[in-house]
Amino acid sequence: MSKLKGRPLNAEEADELLRNWSVPNMAPDERSFGDRSTAFGTPLSDLYKKEMAEEVPVEEPQEPELPSITMAELERIRQDAYEEGLKQGHEQGYIDGFDKGVTEGKEAGYKEGLELGKTQGHEDVKPLIEEQLTGLRSILDNLTTPLNKVDEQVEKQLVQLTVMLAEVIIYQEVKTSPDVILHTLKLSIDSLNAEQEKVRIHLHPEDLELIKNSYGEQTIADNNWQLIAEPTLERGGCEVKTAQSSLDMTLKTRVKETLDSFLHNSGI
Q: What residue spans carry the region label Disordered (predicted)?
């Protein structure tokens, strides 16, 4: 650190010293050359003088003089620049507008053409579709009609088979349960409500013996029952007759009525 009079300098004193410090002259002194010369015998002093004479003074660049311009010329330049900008803007706007119009026109035309094409295509194809549907319906009807006939025939055959099975089961039940004739006789007498009238009862011979053994001779006489053997009747059924009415309670008739009622109620 620099010192002045035995003490360090402060910032202000250092700045003052730098402002007042003069740059020393670094140019060589001719007297220092003496009688010295180059290897070719040229004195150094003459060589220094020659170099100093050859130095070209550096000219400071001069600022170019600005041309003078009037207010009228300035206004004309401004107007020309405005018109040039307006022209360029108009041209660019035309180009941009044209490109945008072409693009939007293409999109609108494409959409409109697509919708029109769809509509026209539907109208053109509609008669063909109707024709194909008509032919398809005809084919399906031809296929369905035989199936419907087969279904009807199968249904009838199933009904007939069901009736036959029911009859077989009922007849078998009558053979294994002879008491059926007792219920049939009671139902017949209750239906006629003929207490004082003479009642003729036609039934199978085996059922006749069963009734005699079940009711007894005295009860049969008190009820004015006349038991008549009829071998053509099936077991379990009978025909009950009075002077005013008759009742068919044969097994065949009862089975038919029962099955007919069942078929009617089931919708067959």
A: 22-45
